[in-house]
Write a structure and sequence with these properties.
Layout: E1 2-9, E2 15-22, E3 29-34, H1 45-53, E4 56-61, H2 80-91, E5 96-101, H3 104-114, E6 119-125, H4 146-157, H5 159-173, H6 181-184, H7 191-194, H8 199-212, H9 218-228, E7 242-247, H10 255-264, E8 269-273, H11 280-283, H12 286-295
Length: 304
């Protein structure tokens, strides 16, 4: 398996921390992976192992404000599509599959909506639903653990309230280890998720948290603000194959978000799983998720 990391300078002068990992075959199909909130372009070994076993390469990057990627104040969810297009062009990748976990889900959907000629299929994994677009049809925070209720309450109050709150939370994540994740996120982790924090996944998750907030909480702040503002694209316009994966025990992004997303996209494939949480719905099903993405894509051919 090859793995490369580079700091790519975009046309507007910003830098993005970009990684390409997986199959050694230069003609491999590519999965463009959008990380959670807060997190970084570091992809867990579980995801990489399944991708490699299917002959796939995995492209990821730290969103603006995370790790060493330049902040983009005021960014919308839709803005990820411009970054994705430029990165794909720079790397010579014509088409890619895409998936996004948690806070990455909206960004994967944005790429599907706004880059339909480049995206072969999309999977939203425990992904958040839009706040502004669902205000009359979804009790957006119902079912969240208290930490997320507090966090998104601050986001709705504005950056002047959110930034100090996440700046304080950053102190715990900047040095967190796998053993400390439960203490940091106790209200957000049902038992089914805690069971997945052993072995390598817990270490990967902690490393991604540390990397994400090493320099600041800016990316985290800007993600939360973007989720609670209009996303900048129409979910119903997505015309590439899309799957929605969500667990009934999720305390970070409630089950109702997955239900709302399925209803908002008439042709979306629903994988609403009973008994699964925010972590378990992905780590426990990653083989099935990748196989579903490949099987229902617009094309399964090489992307570069």
């Amino acid at each position: 398996m090859t793995s490369t990391s580079q700091l790519i300078t975009l046309a507007d002068g910003r830098h993005l921390d970009v990684r390409l990992s997986g199959s050694d075959d230069p003609n491999s199909a590519v999965v463009m992976y959008h990380h959670g909130t807060p997190s970084s372009g570091r992809v867990s070994c579980d995801v990489l192992a399944v991708a490699e076993s299917r002959g796939l390469a995995v492209l990821s990057w730290s969103r603006p404000g995370y790790a060493t990627s330049t902040r983009q104040p005021g960014r919308r969810v839709a803005d990820v599509a411009n970054d994705a297009r430029e990165i794909l062009d720079r790397l010579g990748i014509s088409q890619a599959f895409t998936m996004g976990w948690s806070g990455g889900g909206p960004h994967a959907l944005a790429c599907a909506a706004l880059l339909p000629d480049r995206i072969l299929g999309v999977a939203s994994l425990a992904g958040v639903a839009p706040y502004a677009e669902s205000i009359d049809s979804l009790n957006w925070m119902a079912g969240m653990g208290q930490d997320n209720i507090d966090e998104f309450g601050a986001a709705l109050a504005g950056e002047s309230v959110l930034a100090p709150a996440l700046g304080a939370a950053r102190e715990g994540l900047a040095t967190v280890t796998a053993d400390g994740i439960v203490a940091e996120m106790a209200s957000l982790l049902p038992e089914v998720d805690r069971d997945y924090l052993g072995a390598g996944f817990g270490d990967d998750l902690a490393a991604s948290f540390r990397e994400a907030v090493e320099h600041s909480a800016d990316g985290w702040v800007d993600d939360d603000l973007a989720f609670t503002q209009p996303w900048g694209f129409d979910l119903a316009s997505i015309n590439v194959p899309v799957s929605i994966w969500q667990g009934s025990e999720d305390l970070m992004v409630p089950y109702s978000h997955g239900q709302w997303l399925v209803a908002a996209m008439p042709f979306a494939r629903s994988h609403l799983l009973t008994g699964e949480g925010h972590l378990s719905v992905v780590v426990g099903s990653i083989d099935e998720i990748v196989d579903d993405l490949l099987a229902h894509s617009s094309s399964a051919g090489p992307s570069a």
